[in-house]
């Protein structure tokens, strides 16, 4: 079996971190280790993993995953798991390309030919959503997601929630379904009110109604509303996700393939969710490699529901977009709310390595935005 001889990583605009693995006979695979706002930390972790796994057999994806997980003593968390994800995705891409088949063929074959998708509107301080919803509808989307509110205090005026309800009504009037992202920025006294206020207008789901560090609060809130509860982007392994499944607090699981250990761990998480009758809707406001990896999972997963994609997301404004860094951006064309399942080898995208290398030169790490309240206090973003 060919051995890994080189692992490289590339920081590229707008905020992505790509990984390239080469084996001793020249086979190549690409992964994505993006962890928004923590690029430097993931790069440091990748340096350690590179030293450990270079020289291992590239085909032994599970052994490499277990080596990365178990031999470091400390494990899990967003930094370690994002670095692991970049390597894991690249290894699946490399192996499938060597066999000349899509990754989903190595995962048991497809259960669908099209993948349902949604896009973002509204930005971090949501506004002008009706026009943006019309634009997404013209692009072929039938569903969108938007932030529920701007920053809020622990206990804010109930009137601060009114705009969110009006935005949902405006998007529904355009004829689109809408997920509402609470983004963990709304604390329990306000989240309870907003969930109840939105319910008559039937959002597709409410996402991260509270931060995942409050599992009991999420369970209690889930019992107050019939709206599906979605979460998972800040849960980084099956062990972190298990309590939410066992408590019945989540209806739609949203792990991020670049944060949870890659394709290997995502498929295990998906199978766990199926046993609890929970849908899979992977989080992915990231780059084309991460999205392509998610599509491979979606192709093989019975309980897959819908896929987030970052086409034209506000974080990409004035920079590269989902259609950058590849030679076949047409794979992201949306028709009737769906993209077609890619049929090419590996992840199904062809990375433009020249563009990756050129734009990685002197690329700056992306810094997470933040909110400051009127009293000078830090608020959840």
From TrEMBL:
Q: Which keywords are on file for this protein?
A: Lyase, Magnesium, Metal-binding
Q: Which GO terms describe its molecular function?
A: galactonate dehydratase activity; metal ion binding
What the entry lists under Pfam families is as follows:
MR_MLE_C (PF13378), MR_MLE_N (PF02746)
Boundaries of every Mandelate racemase/muconate lactonizing enzyme C-terminal domain copy: 126-228
Q: Which PROSITE patterns match?
A: MR_MLE_1
What cofactors are annotated for this protein? Mg(2+)
Q: GO annotations under biological process?
A: amino acid catabolic process; D-galactonate catabolic process
Whether Protein transport counts among this entry's keywords is: no
Entry's PANTHER family? D-GALACTONATE DEHYDRATASE, D-GALACTONATE DEHYDRATASE-RELATED
UniProt-recorded name of the protein: D-galactonate dehydratase
Organism source for this protein?
Lachnellula suecica
Identify the gene encoding this protein.
Answer: dgoD
């Amino acid at each position: 079996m060919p051995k890994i001889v080189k692992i490289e990583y590339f920081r590229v605009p707008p905020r992505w971190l790509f990984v390239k693995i080469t084996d001793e006979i020249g086979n190549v695979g690409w992964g994505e280790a993006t962890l928004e706002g923590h690029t430097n930390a993931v790069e440091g972790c990748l340096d350690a993993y590179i030293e450990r796994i270079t020289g291992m057999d590239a085909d032994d994806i599970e052994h490499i995953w277990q080596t990365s997980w178990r031999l470091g003593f400390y494990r899990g968390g967003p930094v370690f798991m994002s670095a692991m994800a970049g390597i894991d995705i690249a290894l699946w891409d490399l192996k499938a390309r060597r066999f000349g088949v899509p990754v989903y063929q190595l995962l048991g074959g497809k259960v669908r030919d099209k993948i349902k998708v949604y896009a973002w509107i509204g930005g971090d301080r949501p506004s002008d959503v009706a026009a943006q919803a019309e634009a997404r509808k013209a692009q072929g989307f039938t569903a969108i997601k938007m932030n529920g509110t701007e920053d809020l205090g622990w206990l804010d005026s109930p009137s601060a929630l009114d705009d969110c309800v009006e935005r949902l009504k405006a998007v529904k009037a355009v004829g689109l379904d809408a997920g509402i992202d609470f983004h963990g920025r709304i604390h329990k006294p306000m989240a309870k009110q907003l969930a109840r206020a939105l319910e008559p207008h039937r959002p597709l789901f409410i996402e991260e109604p509270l931060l995942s560090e409050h599992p009991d609060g999420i369970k209690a809130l889930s019992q107050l509303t019939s709206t599906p509860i979605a979460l998972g982007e800040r849960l980084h392994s099956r062990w972190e996700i298990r309590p939410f499944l066992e408590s019945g607090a989540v209806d739609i699981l949203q792990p991020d393939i670049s944060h949870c250990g890659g394709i290997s761990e995502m498929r295990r998480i998906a199978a766990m969710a199926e046993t609890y009758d929970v849908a899979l809707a992977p989080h992915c406001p990231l780059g084309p490699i991460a999205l392509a990896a998610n599509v491979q999972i979606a192709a093989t997963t019975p309980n897959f529901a819908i896929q987030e994609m970052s086409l034209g997301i506000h974080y990409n404004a004035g920079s590269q977009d989902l259609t950058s860094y590849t030679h076949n951006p047409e794979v992201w064309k949306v028709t009737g709310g769906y993209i077609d399942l890619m049929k090419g080898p590996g992840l199904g995208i062809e990375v433009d390595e020249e563009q990756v290398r050129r734009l990685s030169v002197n690329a700056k790490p992306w810094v997470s935005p933040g909110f400051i309240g009127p009293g000078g206090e830090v608020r959840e973003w």
